Amino acid sequence: MEIIHVSAECYPVAKAGGLGDVVGALPKYQNELGHIAKVVMPMYKTKFLMNNAWDVVHKGRTNIGDYWFDYTIIKEQTNKLGFDLYLVDINGLLDREKVYGYDDDTERFAAFQVSVVDWISVWAHKPDVIHVHDHHTGLIPFIIKHCYKYQHLHDIPTVLTIHNAQYQGAMGWDKSYLLPPWDSWKWGMLDWKGAINPLASGIKCAWKVTTVSKSYLEEMRQSSNGLEDLFEYERGKCSGILNGIDVDVWDPATDSYLEDHFSVETVAEGKSRSKKKLCDTFSLDIHKPLIVFIGRLVGEKGADILPAAISDSFYYIGRKMNFLILGSGFPEVEAQLSALQRLAQNDYNVYVGYNEALSHLMYAGADFLLMPSRVEPCGLNQMYSMRYGTVPMVRRTGGLRDTVVDYGEENGYGIVYNWAAIGDITQGIWRAVDLYSDEEKMAEIRGRMMQLDFSWQSSVQQYISLYQDLQYKEEPVAKSLPE
Question: At 478, is the pLDDT very low, low, confident or very high (cuts 50, 70, 90)?
Fold first, then answer.
């Protein structure tokens, strides 16, 4: 089976979040099962682009509205990621250093999607499945079905995976020119609440829709930034498939970012050495439990309440723990976390920015990982942390609910609380300090966590079964949606 993944991100080429990790791993494991999985993404100016060799496999010319442009498809020569990787180069639009954050992102990703479909339309064969990821590629199912030039592709099954429904790419109808000429009778397949909504369009037009955990799928029927009715209406074609982690990359016994490797048998010694490096680097007390946060400093991750939760913990619990923060995001959150450094007593520090090597060292050296997320569709950080023997402290939501069991329950191994609130977080921190004092219990939990299986094997097979099911079905008939 030939599977084409279309995404804005793919680790290690370009990554802004969990989407990149998933698209960088899923195709590799699909290929290992004997399928042909490929990734198509924009060509950004990244180190990966500069440090690898490429072949030009196609040159094309197409348009969005009156803007005609040339595009080039290049392919990585060595298959070093475990799958065929193709980049779409559009001069002046995609060849930039950042993935997102430009004023013309709407135009950039529209041109990217049109180019991908335009390229596939001239293939001598049709792929078995086109699998698109998040709103940046959510218009592709519509383009294939309802844009006149590409309707010969309409029988290719399409799957949309939603990694985060909070971001939808909505734009005004004045942007409709960004799509190739299309059947105006099908405007409802683009519209949601008076705007063109690429994520909503993908949900309507894709043959199947998946989310990255079962709990997140259920939550989106109650809270999905305005798409609640749509998820309820389309529930019959939606399913939740939990993400896995790339156990080749995230393995404390072989991790290329670590100097001190360890396994479940040597976890105490290995973590101690990594913790010492962190404490020496960031002026922390190695004798205290080390609680870390790794991620985007934004509201959906609960980062805005971290400064108050840390301050309250020091005040009410005492300076019995270390905190180390890694991330970037809202400037005001960055400023508040940085301001806490002035009050540190060898028990707090923050690194504002993105640092892949540091994140690996933190997973290896920390005792606890704090994830007070308001929204967490799947969450990979908690899986990474458990693989490295670091106890996750998570809010009971989305994929966190599906992967972490509180240590107070039978065979539990994490610290779980109900709300992204200062009181719940500080209560979790108090429990972490108390647990850390029980060396025997900590060792038991670490051993249990490190033997949990969060690999891609089970999830990959679920995707393959979903694809195979589509091979025996006709294209679903689009239905009119009540507003």
Answer: low
Domain carrying residue 382: 267-453
**pLDDT of res. 482:** 47
pLDDT of residue 117: 98
Q: Which amino acid is at 241?
A: I
**Residue 203 pLDDT more than 70?**
yes
Are residues 9 and 100 part of one domain? yes
- Are both 360 and 313 inside the same structural domain? yes
Q: Is residue 255 part of a domain?
A: no
Establish if 133 belongs to a structural domain. yes
Query: For residue 413, what pLDDT is reported?
Result: 96
467 CB contacts (<8 Å, ≥6 apart)?
1, 3, 128, 129, 131, 157, 159
Q: What is the mean pLDDT of the chain?
A: 95
Q: Are residues 362 and 307 in the same domain?
A: yes
Residue 12, preceding peptide bond in cis (omega within 30° of 0): yes
Q: Looking at the whole model, is its pTM more than 0.85?
A: yes
First and final C-alpha spacing in the chain: 38
Mean pLDDT (whole number) for 385-404: 97
Residues 232 and 293 in one domain: no
Does residue 258 form part of some domain?
Answer: no
CATH number of the structural domain spanning residue 438: 3.40.50.2000
Task: Kindly report which listed range (114-123, 137-146, 213-222) carries the lowest average pLDDT score.
Answer: 213-222
> Within a domain: residue 483?
no
